[in-house]
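Dear H.,

Thanks for agreeing to be a second pair of eyes. The structure we're designing against is below in token form, covering all 394 positions.
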């Protein structure tokens, strides 16, 4: 995406603002491609849908970071490979909400679960992180490392555009939560709720209750409340990050559950039937450019100064952790009501590993990225990407 700059795709070098004669300003560009999708719906022009799909897929490959966010100074900048660096004005909330709307629309039109994966990652990480504790203000920019603060006075007004656009993210999440393709009830996202939908091809309404504290834990219980006994299909999104997922119907395992797909269950449903899902919430390390970060399920994790567990900028030992490695993180009680999820881990931190004490792992604490820095004060710093030591030959 960052290569789509300049007039005629030639990079501009004059240093002008990103929106001048170029195609790399994230918010506006995605809005145009969303228009392509809606024009496709109205006219059947599949080339327009294909263009939107190709563009979205390139954004996923090149720009979307570990927290589901993107953009520096509201522009594409090859964000995936630069996310560990302190770029300016990271993850504008207007870009985040437009991205959520873009993937939500593609999910609706294509039925591809990867777009639900992206919507989920953005919602539970960067989107909730941009909202303050009182839920009355959205940050303009939200870095992956540093601290959070109020939005600027945009265009000399006593507000910022992100306060206007921010609420759209909740609408995108709710629209995608539970849908139908006409004959199946589709669970794209998981949250405690009561859901019902009309299945036009069957001319029937179906209803369910969902019980879960996902994504704090990986268990979801869905109870059928459809009054009429009848055959229909339920589709359950199995996230790409959940390597080993178990699905049961009335206690009996369902075969063929595969990450990154829908688990389709077609049967005659009776009121009170129970579907249980057990997602793989293994914490995994992500190593990139001599830095490391951690995720648990869809959640990006961060160290936070509120844990008072040492220097959050301390380095990890050289080559001590491999990309994709499963990590032993334990769920613990949060030290503050401001923190949603908290975990402890013993990790190879610190440069003094020739010393007997320095060789031992250090116990440190993490929280979910949405809670990190939630005081919106410089004294409440947090960090997602951690440096790893370099060696003399590096």
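And this is the sequence the design step returned. I haven't edited it by hand at all.
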């Amino acid at each position: 995406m960052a290569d789509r700059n300049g007039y005629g795709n030639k990079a501009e070098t004059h240093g002008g603002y990103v929106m001048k004669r170029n195609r790399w300003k994230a918010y506006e560009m995605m809005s145009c491609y969303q228009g392509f999708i809606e024009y496709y719906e109205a006219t059947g022009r599949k080339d327009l849908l294909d263009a939107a799909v190709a563009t979205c897929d390139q954004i996923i490959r090149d720009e979307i970071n570990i927290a589901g966010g993107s953009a520096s100074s509201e522009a594409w900048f090859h964000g995936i490979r630069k996310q560990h660096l302190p770029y300016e004005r990271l993850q504008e909330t207007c870009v985040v909400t437009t991205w959520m709307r873009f993937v939500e629309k593609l999910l609706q039109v294509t039925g591809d679960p990867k777009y639900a994966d992206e919507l989920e990652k953005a919602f539970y990480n960067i989107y909730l992180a941009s909202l303050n504790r009182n839920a009355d203000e959205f940050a303009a920019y939200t870095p992956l490392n540093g601290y959070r603060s109020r939005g600027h006075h945009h265009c000399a007004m006593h507000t910022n555009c992100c306060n206007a656009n921010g609420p759209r993210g909740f609408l995108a999440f709710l629209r995608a939560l539970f849908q139908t393709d006409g004959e199946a009830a589709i669970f794209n996202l998981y949250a405690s709720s009561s859901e019902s939908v009309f299945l036009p091809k069957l001319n029937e309404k179906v209803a369910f209750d969902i019980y879960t504290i996902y994504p704090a834990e990986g268990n979801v219980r869905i109870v059928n409340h459809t009054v009429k006994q009848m055959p229909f299909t339920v589709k359950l999104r199995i996230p790409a990050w959940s390597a080993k997922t178990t699905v049961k119907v009335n206690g009996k395992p369902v075969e063929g559950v595969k990450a990154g797909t829908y688990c389709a269950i077609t049967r005659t449903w009776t009121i009170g039937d129970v579907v249980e899902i057990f997602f793989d919430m293994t914490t995994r390390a992500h190593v990139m450019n001599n830095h490391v970060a951690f995720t648990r399920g869809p959640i990006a994790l961060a160290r936070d100064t509120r844990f008072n567990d040492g220097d959050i900028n301390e380095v990890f030992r050289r080559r001590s952790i491999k990309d994709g490695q499963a990590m032993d993180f334990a769920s613990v009680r949060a030290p503050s009501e401001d923190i949603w999820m908290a975990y402890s881990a013993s990790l190879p931190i610190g440069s003094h590993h020739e010393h007997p004490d320095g060789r031992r792992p250090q116990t440190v604490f993490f929280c979910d990225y949405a809670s990190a820095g939630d005081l919106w004060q410089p004294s409440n710093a947090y960090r997602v990407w951690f440096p790893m030591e370099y060696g003399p030959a590096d």
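Two observations from my side: The chain has three domains: 26-176, 181-278, 283-387. The longest strand covers residues 204-212.

Warmly,
E.
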